[in-house]
Design a protein that fits this description.
The chain has 112 residues and is an all-alpha fold. The protein has one domain (13-92). The chain contains 2 helices and no strands. It has helices at 15-50, 55-94. Helix 1 (15-50) runs antiparallel to helix 2 (55-94). It starts with 14 loop residues before the first helix and ends in an 18-residue tail after the last helix. Pfam families: DUF6332. The chain crosses the membrane at residues 21-46, 58-82. Keywords: Membrane, Transmembrane, Transmembrane helix.
């Protein structure tokens, strides 16, 4: 394996590919944080600020909002990166001479 995690027969990633991966990871993180913050504010922050809620109700809303925000953060992060990976593999598959996925010795089908 080389330093980027590619298998030996696949070759190195170009600088443009590495830059695209870096930008996509940054986008995934920023959009996941923004979505999680919006959900938390909608579920917990807004009602706590607007209404005069008791301590127990505010704590419950905070816990529920935090759990939903964390779940949404992970879901958004995984979804964005998964879609990027699928598009990247499709582009590589369309290029002649480049394998769509790493070689798998002993396997008879490329999708196995």
């Amino acid at each position: 394996m080389n330093d980027m995690g590619d298998t030996v027969g696949q070759g190195r990633r170009s600088q443009a590919e590495r830059d695209a991966i870096t930008v996509e990871i940054g986008y995934a993180l920023v959009s996941a944080v923004a979505a999680a913050a919006l959900v938390f504010m909608a579920v917990a922050g807004g009602p706590i600020l607007v209404f005069d809620l008791s301590g127990g109700t505010a704590a419950t809303l905070t816990a529920v909002g935090g759990a939903l925000a964390a779940t949404l953060f992970v879901a958004r992060l995984v979804t964005v990166l998964w879609r990027f990976t699928q598009r990247w593999r499709a582009r590589r598959a369309a290029l002649p001479g480049l394998p769509a996925q790493p070689s798998q010795p002993g396997r008879t089908r490329p999708d196995s």
